[in-house]
Amino acid sequence: MFKVKELFSNQGVGRYFTNTAWLLAEKGLRIIDAFFIGIWLARYLGPDDFGILSYAESFVYLFAAFATLGLDQIVVRELVKDSSKRDEILGTTLGLRLIGFVVMFAGIVFVTRLLDNTTIKNTMVMVIALTIFFQSIRGVDFYFQSKVLSKYTVISNFVAVGVLSIVKVILILSKAPLIYFAYALVLEWILISIGYIISYMHHKKSFLKWRFKWSIAKSLLKKSWFLIIGSVAAALYMKIDQVMIDEILDERSVGLYSVAVKMTSIWIFVTVAITQSVFPSLVSMRKKDKTLFLKRLQQLYDVLIKIAVVVSILYTIFASYFVPLLFGSEYTESSHILVLYIWSIVFVFLSNGSWGYYLNENLEKFSSIRLVTGAIVNISLNVFFIEWYGLIGAAYATLISYAISGYFVNALFKKTRINFYLQTRAFLNIFKLNTWIHPL
């Protein structure tokens, strides 16, 4: 068993480990929801309607980067560095994200009018887009991340996911129309927002002290504008395949492909939980000792890549059995896609772990370059691969683009080459038994 505690600093190990446990517990609940309720929902809707729902979620995700502004880990880093400016940083973050939502929504309205979509597709997109508005309050989550106290927001997410699971079950049993499931997504974020507000106030903090400051806004945007570009690029190469499948093939194909995507995505919760919790300790460590910082980063990569490889092997062996069993014979084709698509998480895990390096070394520009590269490769390959090879072609395009952006691009630049070496060593450490027992 991994000694996960070794990922954290020598001081306050228990605090970081407990924080990770809370985050993993939340992600575990989401995995359970995505696995059981998600499977039931896919079976209920069938490939066609499930394809429409997946298309709408992917379409909104493409535009969501304009609302989030790439601020997430930048805000956490700034709060760790200078907590005295907490109210100004959080107030400014809220204001920027609300402005971003308005820009995003206007963009969605404009683009949907240009596309030859059905009324139900456009309606689903507009409703799901409202979730981004309620995500504006996520500054509270950033505050608790910076204090390594994620249990406060985790509890909010627990309640919201639990309630929404019950709501989705009721909708399925009552044979509710497709649009109701879009409303359910909005309800989830309304509940999460309320939970965040209650948690912040329970921690004896006041929203009335939040202040929007243009000076801080300019500072945050100056530090994050490359991340905004990167976020847009990441959204493109993570979700553009489902939108392009809908345009080139049909809704049913999106539904079949989405099963592979969702069965893979449930594992991304794990890497998000680990990297989010480790990030504050890496920030503190980098300020004290770069050698120790790189050692901890190597340990992080070692753990992440081992999890990804084990999961990928298991999926490869058993996908052809459990996909038809769980989703029904209508989704049999999804198992062939999943066997290939699952290996992309190896590079997604490495990519997510890399944020600890890029942000602490002030290399936001390079992180965005790799994401833009990945988006260009993904879109270019999808244009041809979907036409030539169908859904398997889209899976190949994803795997190749993720490998390039999450790993190989690091070798091209002098300042990121050390990160490439760390990632390469993580690959090699797969074959070293002692690294499975004791991270380096």
Automatic annotation (TrEMBL):
Keyword vocabulary terms for this entry: Membrane, Transmembrane, Transmembrane helix
Transmembrane segments: 28-46, 58-76, 88-111, 123-140, 152-173, 179-199, 220-240, 260-283, 303-327, 339-359, 371-389, 395-413
Name of the protein in question: Flippase
Keyword Transmembrane: yes
Record's keyword annotation contains Transmembrane: yes
Source organism superkingdom: Bacteria
